[in-house]
Amino acid sequence: MNGFGVGRQMDDTMFHPNGRSTLSSNDDRDRDSYSSSICEITDCESRDSSNLYHTTTVLRVCRQQVLKPYWKLLFVIGWRPFGRDRINYHCGWKALNVIYPLLLVALMFYVYAYRILSCQGKYDVPLIVPSTDISPTIVPHGGSNVTTPMSFTIEPAAETYHICTHLISSYVFPDVLHFLAFLLGFWYFRIQDNEQMDAMIQQAFLHTTPIQHGTNTQSTMIRAMKWILICGALWVVGMMGVLALFLTAFGLESTIYPFFSVQAWNIVLLGVNVFGCLIYNSIIAAVVVNYTVQCETIICFMRSIQEQLLEKTGDLRMIMHDILKVWQATHQLNGPMANMMSLLVFNFAAMVVVGVSLLLFQNQTEINPLVLTYRVCFFLLWLVILVFPFVQAARLSSIYNKIEQAALEMRVFGYLTSTPRDLDSFLQFVTLAKYKVRLLFIPVDKSLVYGILLLTTFLLIVLVQTGIIVAPSLYL
């Protein structure tokens, strides 16, 4: 304590009467500046419960419902490393990411070998060996002059083991294409760590309308991608069902390769082959789903650009930037992704030819309703997965034509305050930026797809009518 005051804290205000008012004004000014710099961080849904289709919310929903199931599929086939999103990426994950792809490669080679040895699916066209009659011969009996005519009928030998025919076209060549597609996908997704589909989905979501009702909305885009993913899963389930139909129709005795004398061990090897077939079909589904989802994303992106042009709500310069992004995305789609898809499309076409051959050239001795059901389902499943990528590629090519048509209409009727020179420049830019989607190194559009279908149908009719293809029914 001191003599200036008992129990009173000394400060500058005792000597400066106006100091307190000065400090209070400074505090108020600092408080105002501090309050103006505060950034309120709240959840979009808690702030506005009716805004369910906010971009951030829908992106999170898309990540949960579309991307994460697709990532799980990539985990299963070894194209995405385990534990990559975890904070603690320890040595166990590293060891698993080395061992698991090696096991998958070994499993693939096992499936390829088992398919050939067991003639899985019986893809070879059955050949009927006709019986041969030998004319009667005269055989003398002993020393007498009495002769007895005798005749022999040579029947096909009983088949103890079915040897596959057409190995190169039905088994070896499709399996080589499948393994090349697997290696290309491993390099594209695993080695290069390509996240092209995620970035494209985010860009497309930023350009679609965040409302619930409409033709090109974020909810519509999520629904389309979910259906593509569900269709891929259903195709895999369908192929496993076709394998079960094959085993039931022809019996285990004629479909299991006798590696061991004990039948139980052969059934265990058959179970390993069934699991390998699941991975085999999952690889096909992963490639098709990735390709078709990217096509659908670019289509939604282009539809949003088309709506801006028709409604005259966007700036031409920004629209040109968006068209350039679409051109770059299509160029990337025609890269390794199109190469993988082309390899498998050739494989699908070979399987469709096999299915047509099995339906037209049937051995009547082994035909029953179960075998016929197996062959029809086999043909339909391979036909669906062959047509689906071509349909998506044709839809993407047709949307480019609609953008060019909208640019022509703008040149005639005008666009906001743009000058004719600006519209000419925009039309030329759209024409030059027009990009064709390619499969099998061929530009794909709707006219090409329809032309191939009509030509194939006409060719089959001609072959059946001329007798080159003998139909199983007299009515064909």
Describe the structure.
Keywords: Membrane, Transmembrane, Transmembrane helix. The protein has 476 residues and is mostly helical. The chain has a domain of 278 residues. The strands form two sheets. Strands 1-2 form a two-stranded antiparallel ribbon. Strands 3-4 form a two-stranded antiparallel ribbon. The termini are far apart.
Task: Looking at this protein, list some descriptive labels.
single chain; 476 residues; mainly alpha; two-stranded antiparallel ribbon; 12 helices; 4 strands; 66% helix; globular; disordered N terminus; transmembrane; transmembrane helix; membrane
Summarize, please.
By secondary structure, the chain is mainly alpha-helical. Helix content is 66%, strand content 4%.
Protein structure class: mainly alpha
Mean pLDDT score: 78
Could you estimate the helical fraction of the residues in percent? 55-70%
Tell me what portion of residues adopts beta-strand conformation. under 5%
What sequence of helices (H) and strands (E) makes up the elements? Answer: HHHHEEHHHHHHHEEH
What order do the strands of the largest sheet run in, or round the barrel if closed? 1-2
The Rg value, from CA coordinates, equals 35 Å
Tertiary shape: globular
Low-confidence runs (pLDDT<50, min 5 residues)? 1-25, 31-52, 154-161
The main β sheet shows up as: 2 strands, antiparallel
How many H/I helices?
Answer: 12
How many β-strands, per DSSP? 4
Report the end-to-end length measured between terminal Cα atoms.
Answer: 119 Å
Transmembrane segments: 98-117, 171-189, 227-252, 264-293, 341-360, 372-391, 448-475
Region (Disordered): 11-32
Keywords: Membrane, Transmembrane, Transmembrane helix
